[in-house]
């Protein structure tokens, strides 16, 4: 049985404010989360509000390419 394209895929979410601030400040780190999404229900890029331990606040985390 061949494996086709799965409906649920694993995605990586990255903090948007850490990525923008890395140019101005010394790189402390970038917050990343791993989650799953349904490819049929959410074809666009996923954005969730998650806690960033480097910014010390809740920020928007957007989906990145693997």
From TrEMBL:
Which molecular function GO terms apply here? structural constituent of ribosome
The answer to whether the entry has keyword Coiled coil is: no
Which SUPFAM superfamilies does the record associate with it?
A: Zn-binding ribosomal proteins
Q: Recite the UniProt keywords alphabetically.
A: Chloroplast, Plastid, Ribonucleoprotein, Ribosomal protein
Q: Superkingdom of this entry's organism?
A: Eukaryota
Q: Which GO terms are recorded in the biological process aspect for this UniProt protein?
A: translation
* Coiled-coil blocks: none
Q: Which InterPro entries match?
A: Ribosomal_bL33, Ribosomal_bL33_CS, Ribosomal_bL33_sf, Ribosomal_zn-bd
Q: In which compartments does the protein localize? A: Plastid, Chloroplast
- Which cellular components does GO assign to this protein? chloroplast; ribonucleoprotein complex; ribosome
NCBIfam families to which the protein is assigned, alphabetical: PRK00504.1, PRK00595.1, rpmG_bact
What is stated as this protein's family in its record? Belongs to the bacterial ribosomal protein bL33 family.
Q: What is this protein called?
A: Large ribosomal subunit protein bL33c
Lineage runs: Eukaryota, Viridiplantae, Streptophyta, Embryophyta, Tracheophyta
Name of the coding gene: rpl33
């Amino acid at each position: 049985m061949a494996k086709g394209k799965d409906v649920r895929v694993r995605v990586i979410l990255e903090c948007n404010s850490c990525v923008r601030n890395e140019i101005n400040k010394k790189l402390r780190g970038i917050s990343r989360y791993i989650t799953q999404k349904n490819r049929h229900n959410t074809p666009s890029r996923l954005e969730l509000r998650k806690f960033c331990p480097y910014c010390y606040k809740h920020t928007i985390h957007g989906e990145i390419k693997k």
